[in-house]
Amino acid sequence: MRPLVPSLLAAGFTVANAEYRRVGAGGGWPATADDVVAARAALGTDVIAVGHSAGAQLAVCLARRGGVRAVVSLAGVLDVVAAARDGLGEGAAAAFLGGLPDEVPEVYAAASPMALTPVGVPVTCLHAPADQRVPFAQSAAFTDATGDRLVTVAGDHFTPIDPGSAAWASALAEVSALAGPRPS
């Protein structure tokens, strides 16, 4: 997400780029989610959470806990049960959540955006149908279930986080629309 910060700043946003513990470095559920919650609590201001891939999953989980005005999911992992079943990211969901869905169903229920609907705030899902890492179907199913906005873009899994891409321009427009009018 770091390369996107300059364009958000140029658009007039105050930006906090929160890092979190990863699996193998003290992360996993719930420690990683706790890091995101702590980062949000430190801000003390109105927040639109923007996350890419697994970061989008965390952004939706954060929104469900409150304190977030909206979420923009960039190629988000929005159904961790499907991610585990499909073996996405070489088994990343199972490693992150401490087992498979039938082994720790309560963890999947707490960590999967699909299980957390309704989220309670607007969620815009921006996703490329050609994404080969996280299936477009994840965003499509989430927006079908929630009635939230789905924005289809050209490219692959990483195009939405390329600050020079049309996909990122679309994402920035979504953030601006969700933020509404800002003081000059």
From TrEMBL:
Annotated ranges, domain BD-FAE-like: 4-144
Taxonomy, superkingdom: Bacteria
SUPFAM superfamilies, alphabetized: alpha/beta-Hydrolases
Protein name per its UniProtKB record: Esterase/lipase
